[in-house]
Specification:
Length: 234
């Protein structure tokens, strides 16, 4: 059964799919009136719906059943990462992070950042597609680009980590992260965090971590964090 995203879905209600979702339903998949589909609201609910109208521009469905026993993650994974100069690499990271399981992605503007502008419209579409493909029912949040210093002043969870490449004492992530926790991990740009940024993060309680013995690209580090937390919480 094909899955579609509609944040306004409620049991017994009538929903209209977005223009993008309607086109996928009627033009790409060629689904028709009377066929059943799955609807996710991005808040943890999955519904069975019956298509009531399917045209090139409009697709509506009647919500007829709430699916129970839907798997929900027992942890909250927030990665704050500097976008790469090549936006395709950052988009790849977002897609794979969602597939592994991420709840929030915050793009960071850092001292060594080469990309200083980021449009999130396309990223939001990538996230929707990855959520449906992975079978998740929770829609991750993608924030607007924020300065590193401003991010440190925001409300953050108890478990705070920074992954950097400086040759200083760090603990492997598997030694300090525990299952079923809320965490945020900072990942720097291609030129890494500046010494000033690292010091600032440590001052507000971030724990420096290592993701292994290899030096990882920014986008690889983001995916590695999500993969580790997914395995830790299996």
């Amino acid at each position: 059964m094909h899955t579609f995203y509609c944040p306004d879905a409620v049991l017994g209600g009538q929903v209209f799919l977005s223009e993008q979702e309607a086109a996928h339903c009627a033009k790409v998949l060629r689904l028709r009136q009377g066929e059943r589909i799955e609807i996710i609201d991005g808040k943890g609910n999955k519904f069975i719906a019956e298509i009531t109208l399917a045209t090139k521009n409009v697709c509506s469905a009647k919500i007829i059943e709430l699916q129970k026993n839907v798997f929900l993650r027992r942890y909250f994974n927030h990665i704050a990462v500097a976008p790469t100069k090549n936006v395709d690499r950052f988009e790849w990271m977002v897609e794979k992070a969602v597939e592994f399981g991420v709840d929030r992605i915050t793009p960071l503007l850092c001292d060594h950042s080469e990309r200083k502008v980021l449009k999130t419209d396309r990223l939001e579409k990538i996230i929707v597609s990855a959520v449906k493909q992975s079978g998740s029912v929770v829609m991750p949040v993608i924030d607007q680009l924020i300065c590193f210093d401003d991010f440190l002043k925001s409300e953050l969870p108890q478990f705070k980590f920074i992954a950097h490449c400086e040759d200083t004492q760090k603990q492997f992530i598997n030694k300090v992260c525990i299952p079923e926790c809320q965490s945020v991990v900072l990942i720097g740009p291609e030129g890494d965090f500046s010494p000033r940024e690292i010091a600032s993060a440590l001052e507000v309680g971030f724990t420096p971590i290592s993701l292994g013995n290899s030096r990882l690209r920014t986008e690889t580090a983001g995916v590695a964090v999500c993969a580790f937390l997914a395995a830790l919480n299996c």
